[in-house]
Amino acid sequence: MVIDNKFTKEDKDNAEKTGMESVYNYYKGMYRVEWVPNEDFSEDGVEIIKAIEALISIAK
Questions:
Q1: Domains held by the chain: number
Q2: pTM of the predicted model, to two decimals?
Q3: What confidence tens digit (pLDDT) does each residue in 16-49 have?
Q4: Which structural domain range is residue 50 located in?
Q5: Domain contains 32
Q6: Residue 11 belongs to a domain
Q7: What CA–CA distance (Å, rounded) separates 56 from 54?
Q8: Residue 3 Cα to chain centre, angstroms
């Protein structure tokens, strides 16, 4: 079986958006959170982690 690991930029962008939406959906039940899409998320997800930390600090 051959697996093609070639993903287009659109595939990557869709996966990243899905990941961000999953994080949003997880936290929206616990905190008052608004979905604000941001085109500047890096590949390694540092901004996502910062956003989650900010949400947690606001909730405390």
A1: 1
A2: 0.35
A3: 777 777 877 777 777 766 666 665 555 556 667 7
A4: 21-59
A5: yes
A6: no
A7: 5
A8: 26
